[in-house]
Amino acid sequence: MGAHHNMAHDYEYLRHTLDAMAHRVQNALHESLQALRRSDAIGASRIIRDDPDINALQRDVEDLVARFITQWQPMLRDLRRVLAMLAVAGELERIGDYAKQMAGQVRRARDANLPLLMTSELLELGALTEHIFSASIAAFLAEDVVAARSVAALDDQIDARRHAIIAALRQATLNDGSLFDAAIASIEITRALERVADRATNIAERTIYLATAAHESLNE
Amino acid sequence: MSTIIDPRERPIGYLPEGADINRNIAMRRLRGKIWQALFFSSLVIGLLALGTLLYTIIDDSFGYIAVQTRRDPEELADRPLEELSKEELIEILRANISAGLFRRFDRDEPFSERSKESVLQLIEERVIGREVVAAFKLTESLLERERIEATVRERFPRAELEFHSWINREFLTRPMSSVPILAGVGNAILGSLWVIAITMLLAIPIGVLGGVYLEEYASDTWYYRLIETNINNLAGVPSIIYGLLGLAVFVRALEPITSGAAFGVTDSNGRTILSAGLTMALLVLPLMIINAREAIRAVPQSIRQASYGLGATKWQTVWHHVLPNALPGILTGTILSMSRAMGETAPLIVVGASTFIVFYPDSVFDKFTVIPIQIYNWTSQPGAQFRSIAAAAIIVLLVTLLLLNATAILLRNRFKRSY
Amino acid sequence: MTVAEISSVTTAQTNGRYAVELQNTHIYYGSFRAVKDVSLQIERQRITAFIGPSGCGKSTVLRAINRMNDLIPGSRLEGRILFHGKNIYDPDVDPVEVRRRIGMVFQKPNPFPKSIYDNIMFGPRINGWRGTKAQADELVERALRGAAIWDEVKDKLHQPGTALSGGQQQRLCIARALAVQPEVILMDEPCSALDPISTLKIEELMLELRRNYTIIIVTHNMQQASRVSDYTAFFLMDADRAGQLVEYGPTEQIFTSPNDKRTEDYISGRFG
User: What dotted CATH number matches B186-418?
Assistant: First the structure.
């Protein structure tokens, strides 16, 4: 409790914390893609090392939401908003985990002296995922229903690109069996990116629910 | 939330800080102490006044009297007089007073019809002639006994000195007499009770029912407000005005009824207990109505709502809830009105209370006297002994009022309810 | 025809869906219009909550339903309030009878300063109840059981009702209302003077009573309205300080996605 005892102030603080968490996650995602580009084991290790910070921020958000509900007994949109924030913090934590997984793949490939296959395609997929993620977070914080709906369209592109990469990798391993382990690592990375996009879509759905009180599935 | 006052803004005065706070508090406490002392001294003055009153009354009511008899009762008969028969007593009387006086007594009421006590009383008055020749106050009796004894020995050598309580059983039961030592307030007490009974019989129902109507039924219109204002004003009208009203209406205009002529009573005029009771009822009626309204208003609105909410009618609500819950308040007010009626003197003088009657009232059409009238009467008589019996009568009046108030408190506690 | 006749006929015949219907009701105190043009239908054997900021007329509307407003000098009603299809403001309807059929529980528990037993029996007695002592005992027990307070008071039926705790007093008042067998029970902020535990007990009791009675409750506690009621009516004062009905609908809808912006603002605590 500060000098400004009102609901808007407490909400602002909560939003600020969530925003900070989103920045950290966005950063982790970006850095993991940079590590992939440079095949940088040290950069990858830094991401893995910093992941607990993101988890701590999620717990902060949880505490703040619990306190907010206790103190203000929010109703309607106010209630949906803080509940959505709680859910979004969970999604962000998962996205952080996926960034960590990608970094893990990069580091493992480097340690095993494996080549990373189709890096440029992976980076394109990564850039698109980053875009979806930023768009959904921006839509959520702005409570912008139109922006949230447009995220869904991007999600379809992710799936298409991922399938293309997997098909290419399949062909490559059929031609040369020694590439199998390297192909697995790349597939893991596409999977992580696809999950990130899924989570970002969930965030967009939360945005629509918070604004309209209606559940709308964007993943179909 | 704390508001910081910016010193650059317009000055908003000075609040004490630091040592000033202590000085300020000490100052305020001192002021409080001075007021407290003032309150206390007012209380002391009140208590002193009350103490003085009680002291004067009690001082007058007890003390030595010097009694002297014309004849020693032992000279009249060889046995105590009380043991003699009525015939023997008549003989003693005949032997010791003049024949003319004896005949007069017989004419007033034939001896054959008189009771033994009545004859005994005549002997005591006319033959033995106990006479109080001097009376002393309580303080001098206690502190200056030797001086009193010396004075009495010197001035009344035959008199005997005895300690006398002017308030005693005979005083409470005996009727009036022109001889102070033989006088009593018996018929005045009875008169007071009769008058109060009639007053209350009329004032309680009319007052309470009128109060109920004004509180529960009357709407807030100009004519009811006019009535209310009038009732409040009537409560402040001097009591003697009520006396004049009673004189005009009950004693004069309604004489056939108040004298009992309409009911076959012949030897009376309008100056009766009934007139007095009616006048007193008028006097306390405004008080009763105001008080009943206060008591009714004090019944919480929530109780009424609960009753109506269950489908009770207005009358059921008033009867089952308003009146029972207002009862303690009504009773308290009733007793206070009763005390007022008990102590009123002026209107009864106007209505025509008798200052000297010796018989006991036994119907509402009798002439009457009441305790305050007796006090008033005796205090206007010369002589220390009248002062003493007046004081004794005041004690009787005070004790009666005290009993009434105690009853009020008991009744109120008995009926008190918590909400 | 009186309400009683109507009641015995129509309940059997139509078993209508609505216990009470307000049609274009305006309520005045003298020349001041306290409530403007309220129309709503109260469903039978459901709990309907009236919510709104202070002075919005919700209590006035509630009290109009059993003609308690009649007790306030100068109060007047235009429009109709139907109970079993009969306008209870028709000149041939006696408000005393309306109040017997539409009971009321007040904000502050107000047991009579009498024994618990007499508190319960007062209603039946003044309404012309006839029966034996054993039947009276039975009636008292049933009313107290109905208000879920029997077990707490069965050993002290002849002690004053005012000696009970606040929550118990309020349940005693509910039992007292049940004893005259009403069809509708109006509750005017029944928990506002109670602690949270007692409040929950009353709420449980209301949900229990819903099986046999129609309940209308005025409450300032939004959580309470959303917990117990099936329907919610939101009232608001308009520019000339007259209360009006803003929105009425199933509680779930009012508390998740109200149609009116003013309802949303009020429920979210933006004003009031």
Answer: 1.10.3720.10
Q: pLDDT tens digits, residue range B369-387?
A: 888 988 988 888 888 888 8
Domain positions in chain B are 64-167, 186-418
Encode pLDDT of B94-133 as tens digits: 888 888 888 888 888 788 888 787 788 778 777 877 778 8
Q: Is C94 exposed, middle or buried (0-12, 13-18, 19+ CB in 10 A)?
A: middle
Mode of pairing for the β-strands spanning B160-165 and B62-68 = antiparallel
- Give C109-140 pLDDT, tens digit per residue: 999 999 999 999 999 999 999 999 999 999 99
Which distant-in-sequence residues (6+ apart) come within 8 Å of C206 by Cβ?
Answer: C47, C187, C215, C217, C228
How would you classify the pairing of strands C214-218 and C18-29?
unpaired
CA dihedral A11, A12, A18, A20 (to 10 degrees): -160
Give domain A3-217's CATH architecture. Up-down Bundle (1.20)
Nearest-Cα residue of chain A relative to residue C265: A76
Interchain pair C110, B219: CB under 8 A: no
With bands split at pLDDT 50, 70 and 90, how would you rate the model's confidence at C9? very low
Task: DSSP letter for C160, please.
Answer: B
Q: What is the DSSP code (8-state) at residue B11?
A: -
Which of B300, B320, B419 lies nearest to residue C122, judging by beta carbons? B320
B: neighbours with 3+ CB pairs under 8 Å?
Answer: A, C
- Least Cα separation, residue B218 to chain A (angstroms): 49
Nearest to C126 among B305, B311, B325 (CB): B311
Q: What is the pTM of this model?
A: 0.79
